[in-house]
Amino acid sequence: MLLAITVEQLNQHILGICRQQEIQIEWRRSSRGGWAVHEFELISIPPINSAIAYAVALHEIGHVLGRHQRSRSRPVRERWAWDWARRHAITWTPAMERTMRRSLDRYEQRSWPPIQTTARASSVETFDDRYR
Ligand SMILES: [Zn+2]
Q1: I want to staple 31 with a disulfide (CB 3.0 to 4.6 A). Which of 15, 46, 85, 114 is the partner?
Q2: Cα-to-centroid distance, 81 and ligand 1 (Å)
Q3: Separation of CA 130 and ligand 1 centre (Å)
């Protein structure tokens, strides 16, 4: 990158999207993982203190705003959440690309059982993501 983008700019970008789209953020203590509840427009993300955390945040937002998030296929939902992330990022670093690739590899390799509805709500799907 020729232009230095600060972590604070990345943080403000995420906050701006969430404010504009009325997405609620639950901040995580851990820097690993994240989840999103499509129907509640709710995401749980680590603090934006790195490009990777920024990528994770965009990805979780992608589970709310991205295309094909009602697909029964988890790899399809993951791919399109990452598609949304990459298209809306103000920067896309090699580290962000690696985070995306690793995450996608995991979903492509495993066959995920369909997510069953839980006791707490009938039709809510939670996208629970883990990142290395
Ligand atoms: Zn995901």
Answers
A1: 46
A2: 6
A3: 8
Cα 1 to middle of ligand 1, angstroms: 26
Write the CB contacts of 2 (distance below 8 Å, at least 6 apart in sequence).
Answer: none
pLDDT digits (tens, 9 = 90+) for 10-32: 999 999 999 999 999 999 988 77
Where do we find the tokens 């972590």? 7
State in Å: Cα 128 to ligand 1 middle: 7
Q: Phi/psi class of residue 130: alpha, beta or left (left: φ > 0; alpha: ψ in -120 to 50)?
A: beta
Could you tell me what percentage of the chain is helix, strand and coil, using 3-state DSSP and rounding each to the nearest 5?
A: 50, 15, 40
| Topology (CATH) of 7-111 | Zincin-like (3.30.2010)
